[in-house]
Design a protein that fits this description.
seven-stranded mixed β-sheet
């Protein structure tokens, strides 16, 4: 199946870059990955969020068919990983749309926001209000960290500044969803379920892996991991790779320490690739790029010929040859017009071996772009791959809605949700990501109703 032309065209209209600040502070990434090991295990999380965690309603509006309550609470992530959230995101805000007349029971579906879904208007108009009319079902709309009222002052629209921001968002939403599910239980609502579109579907899926009871889950236009979204999907074109490569080359902590914290090692893991083989000597890893195709990826925008010219300086010869080899490198760089920005970090780290003092800030590494992409895949899989989290309690209560020609959420080369969650149902729509979002909201709502009905047939009484 091909990719949607509308998806590709729509992406070209959006000029903003993602992750302009880079990977995020290494110490933040380390804290996030350590916390992921806890939050990825449902049993370890049973007591993370108290059952009586305080939730507040501060405003109520009356409408003809429903009441709309505005509420808030403090994100548990602020207590568990202090300071990791930006100050603006510490207070979690939500909107609760409740029908004035229930058709049966008091069902509530929590909707998590997709990319760019600030505040509540979009989900309220396209999903929540129609669900009141069609099914007498309540909706609770949680605002994502980094969006709407929770957006940092220095963030441009929806463009997360750092890669780590996405992981902080995910960790916060898992815990915040638990707060809301427990609050809804205390208030007597039943049955409860979760949904989301695009990124909201990923986040809802992550949240359900942490819930200790059977629960309806309806992820729409999402899949098993976000790694492919930012490495092979059309959104990969919006990633600020230049800044990410620069930081990866300058700061050795990313590849020397953080990679060791990444645990996921499934059939689609970045660790399966030769570029991340373990026990590779550091200098060999950086410079002696063996004879494989690692070295064929050129610098950001330079042609392969220039990359090959530099490559020949290192393969086989290692760091031997002293200052003559450095002079040869400098000559090659100057004649090709390449920036000195791309010179090797290892030249700095070991310039006494070279017999020539150098003060270059970075390394020339022909494989730097590929290494950065692999590192992106590794960190994304660590925090978003469903195989890295507990399997939901009852996978028969999961209906996934996916677009056949989705260019934003590639399914090639990654484990399918059916492999990770045996028993879940996948429904495919014709078309791509954008057309499905614009014109298939009714299909998403029907999947929600079907999943809730399935739950009520299987679990006719409250737990």
């Amino acid at each position: 199946m091909g990719l949607s032309r509308l998806d590709v065209f729509y992406r070209r209209l959006l000029l903003t870059k993602l992750f302009i600040g880079g990977w995020g502070k290494p110490e933040d990434l380390k804290r996030i990955f350590e916390f992921r090991k806890i939050i990825g295990d449902r049993e370890k999380c049973r007591s993370l969020v108290p059952k009586d965690y305080p939730v507040y309603i501060n405003k109520t509006e009356e409408h003809a068919d429903c009441k709309i309550h505005d509420g808030f609470f403090i994100s548990p992530l602020e207590h568990l990983v202090p300071g990791i959230l930006p100050p603006e995101a510490v207070k979690a805000r939500f909107q609760f749309i409740v029908p004035k007349r229930w058709q049966k029971d008091r069902p509530v579906c929590i909707h998590l926001a997709g990319t760019g879904d600030h505040y509540f208007w979009r989900r309220r108009t396209l999903m929540a209000r129609p669900m009141v009319k069609e099914a007498g079902m309540a909706s609770l709309l949680l605002e994502n960290p980094y969006y709407g009222y929770r957006k940092p002052k220095d963030q441009l629209r929806s463009s997360l500044k750092n890669v780590s921001d996405l992981f902080v968002m995910g960790g916060a939403l898992i815990l915040e969803s638990t707060v809301l599910l427990r609050w809804l239980e205390r208030e007597g609502y039943w049955p409860l379920g979760m949904t989301g579109i695009s990124m909201g579907g990923y986040m809802a899926s992550l949240a359900v892996t942490n819930w200790p009871k059977p629960i309806p889950l309806i992820p729409c236009l999402s899949w098993s991991t976000a790694s492919s979204v930012f490495t092979t999907g059309v959104l990969s074109k919006a990633v600020n790779w230049r800044e990410l490569e620069k930081q990866y080359a300058i700061n050795s902590v990313y590849e020397e320490e953080i990679i060791k914290l990444l645990e996921y090692c499934g059939a689609d893991s970045f660790k399966m690739g030769p570029e991340f083989a373990k026990n590779v000597d550091s200098s060999e890893h950086l410079l002696v790029l063996s004879g494989d195709d690692r070295a064929t990826v050129g610098l950001n925008s330079k042609a392969g010929g220039e990359a090959e010219a530099g490559r020949g300086l290192f393969i086989g010869g290692g760091l031997e040859g002293g200052s003559a080899r450095v002079d040869q490198l400098l000559s090659s760089v100057n004649s090709s017009g390449m920036s000195l920005d791309t010179l090797p970090r290892s030249l700095l780290a070991n310039n006494t071996l070279l017999g020539k003092k150098t003060d270059f800030a970075k390394c020339y590494r022909p494989s730097l772009h590929r290494e950065s992409i692999s590192f992106m895949k590794g960190v994304m899989d660590e925090c978003t791959h469903m195989a890295n989290f507990s399997v939901p309690v009852d996978t028969s209560l999961i209906i996934v809605v996916q677009a056949k020609e989705d260019a934003y959420i590639p399914r090639t080369g990654v484990l399918s949700l059916q492999e990770i969650w045996p028993g879940c149902e996948v429904r495919y729509l014709n078309g791509g990501h954008i057309s499905a979002y614009l014109f298939k909201q009714n299909v998403f709502r029907q999947a929600i109703y079907d999943t809730f009905n399935r739950f009520c047939l299987k679990y006719p009484s409250r737990h």
